[in-house]
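Folded chain entry —
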Amino acid sequence: MLLDDIHQPADLRLLSEDQLAALAEEIRDVIVRTVTTTGGHLGSNLGAVELTLAVHRAFDSPRDVVLWDTGHQAYVHKLVTGRLDRFADLRQAGGLSGYPCRAESAHDWIENSHASTALSYAHGIAAALRLRGELDRRVVAVVGDGSLTGGMAFEALNNLGHSGSRVIVVLNDNGRSYAPTVSKLSGHLAHLRLNPSYVQARERVRDLLRGIPGLGEVAYSGVHGVTSALREVVTPHQFFEALGIRYAGPFDGHDIASMEQALAHAAEWDGPILVHVITHKGRGYAPAEDDDVQRLHDLKVQPKVSNASGIASVAPLSYTDAFTRAILDEAAQRPELVAITAAMPGPTGLLPFQSAYPDRFFDVGIAEQHAVTAAAGMAMAGLRPVVAVYSTFFSRAFDQANLDVGLHRLPVVFVLDRAGITGDDGPSHHGVLDMALALGIPGMTVFSPSSAEEVPVMLHQALSLPGPSAIRFPKTPAPQADAVGHEMRARTVRRGDGSVCLLAVGKLVRAAVDAAEELAGQGIDATVWDVRVVSPPDPAMLADAARHALVVTVEDGLRVGGAGSHLVAAMAELDDLTGPVPPVRLLGVPRRYLAQGKPDRILADLGLDGTGIAAAVVRARAVEQERASSH
């Protein structure tokens, strides 16, 4: 296999055109075989095979800086930079990250997987190289058309053009982000790549130039100037060149030789230049090519679940499924309800809403900040917006949630999917900050359902509030509950003898119950509360907790500034508190970046499963008993 002999990008430059074509197919085979086992980003990488090979043949990584926006398209990059032997462990605990990772390779400059950032990195790195006098090094940013729906990308483009930075932007245009790309610019790009007038005129000119006796090659070398003039005639407004960024293309993103030549020419340009390539997401794998929604952008490998008879059972209901049903029910009763998402209609469960209420659905592209402020405007004008985003992406719009929604006390509902420990996607996707962020916004009501049945109850309550609210839930299967809470009240799950009170948030209610059962075997009778509403917390729950000898809070969010500290502060401020706040232990996620792994395993390692919580209670009781005896 040719891929076995590719240990660094320089090895690619030894291959013939036929060998490169064979290597591309080998790479696709490796990616399909691996990702269909481990899960991961499939379609985006299959579409970027030839593009990656061309980039690494044209530039000298890592001396030349190659940046991959979002990292969704970096598996091929991993394979040609010496990581084939570890690729089978992609996204597994202790294995390769699903995104570029600085700890893995000198070829990985950035590892944050949030979109629309690479152009800003490129601007900064290019400025540093210029100031250090390293003018022979190139900075290359590979950016998808979906990333160009994010405002940060436009801010960077503006600066690149203004500063004249020597940055090569490779626009990987497949017409999609997660789903089909939503932007006017993407429409212009599509027009350009499909416009027969431009394509035919360009090819006619090139053929004519080649045919000039004795001057053909010289004339052909100047064809870029000719095609620039043609573009002005037969294409829409030249957006990039208006910003001061030279435009070249479009080129066939699966023609290595064509791209390599274009990149070599771009490297000589004294300023920022964008090389526009057209690729096909999911290329070479029929199931991806046939997926009209997302081209198997990310492939989720579901574990096989069997019952005692060995017959496969129905997959458990997810919190996202429960939200889908709940928002459809609410929309039928509330014509003012609208739904907003940032390029994630499928993963956030809004596709059925989009189908049922297309005029009330808004996909703004990868632009969370815009989504939130647009929601604020909608709320000001009498609508009831529901903004559904991943928990990890909520942090991108915190300023807007705080000052555009919170400060104006607007009734925007944030639905934060994938909250808590998410697992295989690693540190950039764990949703551990949302609780602390939301609790820092004055007037924000924060709900955390412990079961699928709680989601519709909480959404209904949130839509009746006069101000902002957030409902956060994980991507793991939702437990089915026999009982649910009501309105803004907490729910007693288990009544103990007053020795220990466990205040559990969201999915960790189940772990707290497991801990209580384990503690019962040791003679410790614990009370368990399902907090349900973290802010404002139920005063009855706090008063009951204050009557216990020990209080332990349990959450799957950041422990520092999270739910536990918020509940304890509220307990201390109770008007009818008859004595001091009892000893408290806060259990949650520590302030560090957590690598990929299965959520249950990570939670167990953090002491946030039943056994870990029970052990923490036993330790805390021992400490308090020792303190009491020493006095």
User: Anything to note?
Assistant: The longest strand covers residues 550-558. Residues 230 and 621 are 79 Å apart (CA to CA). The longest helix spans residues 17-38. The radius of gyration is 28 Å.
